Amino acid sequence: MQRHLIVQIFLPSFLKICTGADWCYQSQHTCATPCNGPEKWYHANKDCEGRAQSPINIVHRKTLPDERLTPFQFRKYQDSFRGLIKNNGHSVQVNVPHQPYVIGGDLETPYKVVQFHLHWGKNGGPGSEHTIDGEQYPMELHIVHMNEEYSKLEDALKDPIGVAVLGFFYEESLSANRKYDPVVRALQTIMTTGANTTLVSVSLEQLIPPQQNLTNYYRYKGSLTTPGCTESVIWTVFEKPIPLSRDQLRVFSDLQFKDGKPMVGTFRPVQPLNGRVVYRSGGVVVVASTAILMASFTMAMGLSQPN
């Protein structure tokens, strides 16, 4: 009886110690490093158990074509800037001091860039947040935009369509992507949590695929992928990946969490769709292709008729 009482008293305390108050990724969670792993992020913020959470697994055959998802126009993406790049203890984040913006893609108004950050695995292994037909890429870039009418991201997050995030996958390539040299060099100076430096002149355009390769993408309504998991994000996930060499991908795993352990596995597991529909661009292309196919078929039938 006395032993049972001791267990009742100390077990909740032990669980609390093992859980912790801060949020973390699954790769960080141990009883020696108390924090709330992804399955308990709702302890950090109740919105993390909402019904429109991100990321998701995108099943291509279940997506619906939408002809309104026209190509984006990337304005001022080619302008170089010197932004602050920081190890924030969960990821690498770069604040964008000028205001590139995007229009088109069925966004009702222009959305201006606030910052970008990345999610990765371990030494170039699987690490993207979104997956396509269950495939997880080595890394994922998120360029965070807010509706042009807002001056603070906090205010934009209160609007159900206040934030638009563009997501880009990475793939391993045989050769290094020299456009990423400024970022890779900067990483080597911000290994520890809280460390930051000024990113040598870089443009958003050089970090993403050429615009002509960005016409195929997916669209759905979701959330931030870290606490507070606010469900106010219009998500665009592009099909065309960004190439990086294995060595370039591995540099990200040299960064450190605040406890000094390697910063790896910085992705949230995919979340349930809960009835949401995922759309894909190319509706017009599909219709056009069908029309061409039918015309070709008609012509072939005509040619095959006897004189």
Main sheet summary: 13 strands, mixed
Query: Order of helices and strands, N to C?
Result: HEEEEEEEEEEHEHEHEEEHEH
- How many angstroms separate the termini? 101 Å
Rg, Cα atoms, Å: 22 Å
Shape: globular
What is the name of the CATH topology of the largest domain?
A: Carbonic Anhydrase II
Q: Architecture of the largest domain, according to CATH?
A: Roll
Q: Which homologous superfamily in CATH is the superfamily of the largest domain?
A: Alpha carbonic anhydrase
Given helix and strand content, the structural type is alpha+beta
Strand residue content: 15-25%
User: How many helical elements?
Assistant: 6
Overall mean pLDDT stands at: 87
Helix content: 10-25%
Number of strands: 16
CATH class of the largest domain: Alpha Beta
What low-confidence regions span 5 or more consecutive residues with pLDDT below 50? 1-20, 283-307
Taken together, the total number of domains comes to 2
Subcellular location: Cell membrane
EC number: 4.2.1.1
Signal peptide: 1-20
Keywords: Cell membrane, Disulfide bond, Glycoprotein, GPI-anchor, Lipoprotein, Lyase, Membrane, Metal-binding, Signal, Transmembrane, Transmembrane helix, Zinc
Q: How does this structure look, described?
A:
The protein is α+β, with helices and mostly antiparallel strands and 307 residues long. Helix content is 20%, strand content 24%. It has two domains: 1-42, no CATH class; 45-294, Alpha carbonic anhydrase (Carbonic Anhydrase II, Roll), CATH 3.10.200. Mean pLDDT is 87; it is low at 1-20 and 283-307. It is globular and about 50 Å long. It contains six helices and 16 strands. This is Carbonic anhydrase. Pfam families: Carb_anhydrase.
